[in-house]
Amino acid sequence: MAHDHAHHHHQHKISNLTRAFVVGIVLNILFVIIEFSTGFFTNSLALLSDAGHNLSDVATLGLSLFAFQLSKWKKRRS
Prior knowledge:
mainly alpha, 74% helix
């Protein structure tokens, strides 16, 4: 007995992702500043290293935002 059914592929459009990235970046930067300051004044190497790790997360979010904007720009020019 053969089983046959149609597959419907939906392409999800990403909308308003820019705002989510910007909010995420701003919140993470604030957290990095607070965590670094606290680690510096309390001589906590753990907080300082975690602030550095979170800073790399912010850089990744920024790079992702740039790539997303670049992909939208390429589509408009085509």
